[in-house]
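User: My collaborator sent over this chain with a note saying "see what the structure looks like." That's all I know about it. Can you take a look?
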Amino acid sequence: MPFRFLTSGESHGPALTTIVEGLPSGCPIEIQKINAELRLRQQGYGRSNRMKIEKDEVRILSGIQNQKTIGAPITFQITNKDHENFLKLPKRKLSAPRPGHADLAGTLKYQHSDIRNTLERASARETAIRTAVGALCQNFLETFGISFLSTVTQIGKIKTPPLKDLWKYKNKIEASSMLVPHPTLEKKFISEIKKHQKQRETVGGCFQVRVKGVPLGLGSYSQWDLRLDGRLSQALMSIPAIKGVEIGTGFLAASLTGSECHDEIFYNGKNKQKFGFFRKTNHHGGIEGGISTGEEIILTCAMKPLPTVPRKKLKTVDIYSHEKAKSFSQRTDSCAVPAASIVAKNMAAIEITRAFLEKFGGDSLKEIQKNYKNYLSLKLK
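Assistant: Without extra context I'll predict from the sequence alone. Here is the result:
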């Protein structure tokens, strides 16, 4: 059975849900690790007061018994605690679409009579349940030594200096409200957000997702939609407010010469995940020709400022009267870059799980482990 999942639920509906199919039986699942990822998604300076209301935790409805998968569809649910508050609010039709949201295009596409029908599902609140699915996938991939890390690299115009080995800072990064390795960086980022908050503005930024332990050979060059880089890019671009994805050096590669850009190949016979081959550079971010090379996968994303701007209600047009209007303002984050980086890390875990199961798939964890071991023992003749 191919790995797949669907999510459902609205921002202020009773709950968010997902059904996940295709994970093999026998995978150990630590619910506390899934909830830990959900907590990471809720943190970060600049989040709205809604994060004080919601205490995201997964409720398992099917597919897991005694902390192990049973090979059946897995159902998760996250309760929206703000739902009760929403029911008490006066109901009025929204007819002034907000620039930067799905309001106009979604409402016209589905012929809704109220913009709220669009914004409730288009909301980034849906990424909470996707994060839970990604955390489930991280649980599975940990069995094969595959690890994930995300860190914020830019807020507004403030950038982090390059660091050689981010993995040794993993604990510090995840303990930081801004997902950065040093307190000085955290202070600079918070100061930048505060500056924009005083101006009643929102601010965007960039973050990076890193994955190590991925074996050579995930993805394929044989068809366009099987290329791992394309699949990861689509997964990350599906996160609300993400406007750019780079792999490895990304756009910098356009200014390099061929001899500067490409990762030369060496051999020492030691690393089984790469059949003994290795690179001294990683400009391609662990993917060549749509296939993982066994090197660290490096993904960088750019996030736009969130479009609900308290300072200035942006110009728009009423969908019924066609008269000039001002976009309505509601509770919003002033910055959600750290949260988006956690969602992106888990979306990457979903796509790598999908590619991993395509390569080594079976109905049970033991069968997959055997397939994986056999693959790593292969030699060219």
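A starting point for your reply to your collaborator: The two ends are 32 Å apart (CA to CA).
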